[in-house]
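dumping the sequnces here before i forget
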Amino acid sequence: MEYTVGSIAPIFLSPVIAFVINAFFGRKLPRQGDWLATLSIFVSFIFSARIFGDFVFGQFATDYYIHKVFTWFDLSYGTQIYKIDMGIYIDNMAAIMLVMVSGVATLIHLFSTWYMDHDEKHGRFFVFLPLFTSAMLGLVLSDNLFSLFIFWEIMGFCSYSLIGIYNKKEKAGDASLKAFMTTRVGDVFLLLGIVALWTTLGSVNYVDIYAAIAEGKFLGQTVLGISFATFTALCIFLGAMGKSAQFPLQVWLPDAMMGPTPGSALIHAATMVTAGVWVSLRMYPLMVLGDITWFIAVIGAITAFGAATIAVVQTDIKAVLAYSTLSQLGYMIMGVGVGSYNAAFMHVITHAMFKACLFLSAGSIIHSVHEQEMPKLGGLRKFLPYTHFAMMCCTLAIAGIPFFSGFVSKDRILGDALYYGFMAGQNPLLAIVPILGFAGAGLTAFYMFRMMFMTFYGENRTHHDDHGHGHGHHDAKGHEAHGHDIHHEHLDVRQNVPLLILSVFTLGFWFCGTLTGQSFGKVFGAKTEWFKVLVEAPRVERFVNHPRQEFSKVDTKEAAHLEHAHYHHQTGYAGPNPDEHKLHSAHTIGAIASIIIAFAGVFLAFLMYIKGSVKPWASKFPGLTKVLQNKYYFDDFYIEVLIKKGLLGLNRGLAWFDMGIYDRFAVDGWAAVNRVLFKSAKWFDNVVVDAIGVDGTGVAVNLFNLVLRIVQSGKIQFYFIMLIMVLASYIWTVNI
Amino acid sequence: MIQQLFGFLSYYIPEIICVVLMTTLLVAESAVKDEHASRGKIIGYALGMLALCLFFLIQNMSEAPIYIFHNAITIDPFSTLIKIIMVLGTMGTIFLSYSSKDIYSNLKSEFAIMAVGVLTGGMLLASANNMLTLYLGIETLSILSYVMSSFKRDESTSTEAGLKYVLYGGLSAGVALYGISHLYGILGSIQFVEMVAKLPGLEGTNLVLVMISFILFFVGLGYKISVFPFHMWTPDVYQGAPIPVTAFFAIIPKMAGLAALVRVSFIFFTSNAALNVSWVGLMLVISAMTMTVGNVTAIGQTSVKRLLAFSSIGHVGLMILGIVTLNDEGVRAILFYGIVYMFMTLIAFYITSHLSDMYGTDSYDVFKGLIYKHPTMAIIMAAVLFSLAGMPPFSGFVAKFNIFAVIIEKKLYGIAIVAAINSVIALYYYVKLAKTIILGQADGEVKVAGFTPANQAVIIALFIPVLFLGIFWEKVMTISGNAVLFIK
Amino acid sequence: MNGILNWILWLPIIGAIAVLATPKAKDNAVRLVTLITTSITLILSIVLYLKFDTSTAAMQFVVKIPWIEQFHINYHLGIDGITMLMTFLNALLFFICTLSSWTVEKNVKAYFALLLMLQSSVFGVFFSLDFFLFYVYWEVMLLPMFFLIGIWGGENREYAAIKFFLYTFFGSIFMLVGIIALYYASGKGVDSFSILAHQGGKYVNETVSIFGHTFSFEHLFFWFMFLGFAIKVPVFPFHTWLPHAHVQAPTAVSVILAGVLLKMGTYGFLRIAFPIFPQAAVESSTIIAWLGLISVIYGAFCAMAQDDVKKLVAYSSVSHMGFVMLGLSAMTTQGMNGAVLQMFNHGTSTAMMFLLIGILYERSHHRWIVKPDGSKGYGGLSTKLPKYTVVFIIGMFASLGLPGLSGFISEALIFLGIYQKFTTITVIAVVGLLIGAAYLLWMFKRMFFGEVNPETEDYEDMNAREIFYMLPLCICVVVFGIFPSPLLNVMKASVGQLVDLMAKF
Amino acid sequence: MMSLASYLIISLILFVVGLMVMISRKNIVAILLGIELILNAAALNFVAYSRYVTNNLDGHIFSLFIIVIAAAEAAVGLAIVIRFFQIKETIHVDEATQLRN
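..and the predicted 3d for all of it:
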């Protein structure tokens, strides 16, 4: 396997080039250069597909990785050696991620060319989309946390711009600001963690960090009282929380739907939000070493369940999808926490596929119906058959119905969670993790099918002519062209072929050799279990004193010493070596349980929204509904209390102090002091000499007679007195 | 004997010229009838004579020190340089008096007469080598100054200024004289050289008495250079006197007094350690107080004339620091400062005089927006103010720098900090004036009239050294470095 | 080749004289002369960069002419890596400011003459290797600033001008005392006024006594110098002149002030305070770090509360210079390099911000985000002024340290520098980053998003001239964000030498 | 036979009285007289010292000069006082408080 700059760089660079060209000449190009963007992403898809092929259809080598380094800049002088390296690190995980990202991105670009047609922001949209994709690809490629952080932030910037792309809308501004700042909270901690690692190790290369963990370099070090590993792991995970919108930093993601739907599909569903999961997977050994996996698991569980509950009451189709995204991200993070490394990553991939598809379908609905309030939709399946088909597949997948990808990945997470919560002998309180997990699974099935039913089934409500209320939730499509008739959907390369392609990948067997996703009931044989085989938690001891490969034309062949595939069943690092038997049974139980729960959820939705035999519970629990509709009042709390009252109050106070008090008195005060001195001199003349002197004449008579006569007698003579007195004092002080 | 005396006289030409000039001016004053034609001639004559005097002085610069008239007078480069400064100052002020309307209108050359007289006294003081000549110098200086300060016969303020000056001067002179008398008694002579010879042997009561008498004696010089607390007459007299006179007072008596002070300090307070200590202490205290009082009081002034008066007090305070160290660098710094100070003060008063002639007052308001009324004047005035404040690249900075250098060499950081803070205070009021001149909005775009090209030429001519000495000050430093006085 | 520094230094003065010589009514001629002068200076400084030898930390292009023999004062010029960057920055910014001041109408001649004098004096500060010369230029620089702020400034200009003047003078007079003390401490030798000759901790063991108390020579005069430079930077608590000066100053002057003049303070630390008093510097680095931290946080907080855009940016530069101080206090390779890089980057990014605000001010004649009466000052600008918005976004994200733009690398290096020395401070300082993003983005949101404010209806977008002078800065910000090596290679030798020196104490 | 001490004491008394006169009397002429007293104290000192201590003529000469100077000073002083009287029609010293801060 020969890898040169030429074969890897294009993955990252071709979108960048597209970005540059579109940024400068976009307006002059035909169709404002959207084809260029799409093409560039496709190019990087080709290149990453090649790598993917090498890694997957090459030999099953879990431990194979490419690591190339070049010096970005160099501060060395004399004895001080300080280089800052950049490089690429591709292992199986990266290869899979690359092909997923570029593939999904290609389809989304393709779809966008249709969706954004005749949109005023068409051009700008296709400036930021390729930049964003390239950043994501760069993040996946990058071999160290520092460059990861760089791409991480660039993605933040892109999402900021895409969310706020409809700049006429005040809400768009709010949403973009919120998104950037909320993620920024995590980012600064991530930066802090990176800095801490860097200063201690002298590098933030994954391989160096793994090696350091293996050599136990971190042991015994502490920062601000807590163990170094915990500190850095926590910082990095906080970063992940920001990016992956985990509780309590989840507030930004729902608002991020202000952007155009394909943008949301790419950023807030498929790729960017998974960056957080990505970094926590990359740093998994550190998390384990820092012993914060329980924290991760809990956070994930809370997010998974909480988001699901909110999704239940949403009426905006995009909002439902947004919260389902949150909830699914929760599952991924939970998976990382409970140590089901492989499944968590698999869920990243599967989720990316079906969630992208879901968003695109939503986009296609909105674009053709100009309506995104579910109560105003319904019965669309005869108008939008392809969309309906794709969306149904994805819904089945996300709901965790067997034979679909969601089932495969999510249920393995749940199984591990079950094991982690009840059998791994952890703190009993951690039982909350699987409980919330399963509950969330049920809710997921419920609200997803609720969405399907309300949108595609029942009678069509789109021709009710009051489009008035709820316009706030629309994106730009909502505004123009109300009351169009829904044109019947045809098979269109740009509209629904992407959906269909994506929906193909919602089938489970692409990802694992078994129908159930469990270890039993293999039908396709071990060869197709590529995913389980390829992806495993990095075994850090392999990286001790690894060679440093300069980025050179010729590739050094690590291929020479490859260990061959060996099926790792145990899931990475979940505490002490897990008991095979218990784990196995846990998975079985989990699978069965979640199947039951999923079907229960679907059935409930069916009863409520198709048969209507059960009234929706919203009416039953108004209070709860209100709480949920207000997203547990998190946004209000953050904005009203923390920011407006707390932070701004503090700032106003400080600013007032700075100019009003400090500057006025402490600084300008000096001038005042001088003036006072001068005044006092004057006062001495006028008051002491004249007033006291003159007025005092009658008062004191005998003893001070002389003195007073002296003082009262006019100015010049007072000068004399001063002269004599000072002279006397001089003479007095003569000491020889 | 006689030809020896004449030999001496050959060194004494400048003073003689001054005396001759004074008398001839008196004659001319009484002889010439028609003022307006004659005035220019008379002034021109006076200036020409002074220029001649300057020429002879420059001749004397190179000479080694000479003691003439039985050691009554020293002619050494130090005194000569001081005299040069004084003569230049006198010339400047005389020209100013010529153009100024502040002095009563039908003046022909009284000012010149008096000024030259004071100058003579100053020269005497600068090169006095025994107590008698010193005393005579002070009195010559004073008595004529009294007259000058009350030049505006018809104005009560001027007369009052003169009165105060007389009384205060009389008292200080008397006190000083009383001190001198005791010095004479204890040290047995009025010749500096013989007096110094006695000093090392002194101890006990005599030493204390000597110190006390020196302090008394110091009053006489102190009030001439108007240091705290003997400065009190200064603002009143400066305010009361006509502007040319004020300018004159701000330069000549101060220079002369400083010269005498330097000479006395060097002669008497290098030999005896005890005396040295207490004298240096006295000087430190006095300079600190003088600076602070001068600058702080200057802040609140609204009359520019008073402002300059107080600021001159501040400057003297700074100059005295040059004496503290009792070394050649100190003297060099003082001399350099004196030269620069003379030019700066002349310009400042020149412009102030002209403006107050035009507007009838010298408050800040007449300076408001001067830049729009008369750019050249405004820019030069601002530059001079910054120079007075000690900003580079103007010579005021170099002067300040030298003083700082001297005191810091002696590691007197405390007084250095005091001086530093004082220069900030000084900057404050100078910049306030500069602000009024340049940033202030002129009320009405009336151009300043009647500022003849001649006047502009004079101002610019005076300004050139202010700027030039700030950048290429090596030569002048060398001159004043060579001019440090030789004891014995 | 050695003469080139002379040329760069004196060309603006020649230009100023030419400006004053041009006849009265010909404003455009004046502008043209200034433009030509500044562009020649810029070209010369680029030539300087190309000829610069990055391998050595020694002074280059040295010019040394005796000036005052008695005091061994020389006219001694030379540049090393740090001043190379500053020189380039200075030349660039003045070139840009000339273009941006094209619209100045109030007595043009004086304005441009003063501007050129200012440039020359700033060059002088960076070039001079002789203490006396340094001090002279340091002070001379105040005069044009005083008049530029005082005459062409806003409504409260005189107060601001005097405040700026007195503040700086107060600091520098103590610096003068320090300089003279050094002169005598080094024995009035041949090069006792040469800055370089004093470096290397020669005065570790000396003591001085003031009013009877004994101090360590190093510490006392380190703090004297500190006062002089810290006021210039400005470090909390000496920062309050900055908001006044910035708000009142005309656009070009604020650009220079923020872009170059603030850097003179930190440059003073790098060239004088640290190398000459290394022990005192090392021992008091904790205090400096804390002061820097306070400036970062305090500046950011104050900035967030501002309703005046320019004041906001002014406070933001207090915050950013705080980062520089943090980097300096670290005294490690990455920290120091980061600090110097931050000096340059802050120069470009803040210059962009001030220029943009100036451009907006020319259209709106006010700078209120929220007017005192509570109504919106702007709003929907991004719809109205697309080009302007793009440039604004670049400048804004550069100054809030977005990776890929210049601000990030320097800030990251600074963090890397200080972490190992002051962990706690680092942890607190990241809050500064957070708030730094917050106030800028909030300001952006309030000004650029939403419906178009009727007041802003008649604004026209940036014209060719404005785009032309914003372009170089945009290029700097982007290119040096991706390839910082051109800057780092130039300065690393000089910085490294300093770090080695500090490491000895 | 009088001793040096007695001369010195007398001159001291003269000096102090002169001071007292200067600072306490309101009449300007009287103040001028005070100055004369002080000068005379000094002159007396000179003569006494030259007679008892130094045995040279310096003191005598000095005192002669003092007398001359005193006369000149008095002349100028009185001239100014007359001017003052012509303007203010009084020679009360408190009238001279026009000039002040």
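Chain A touches chain D through 15 residues (CB under 8 Å).
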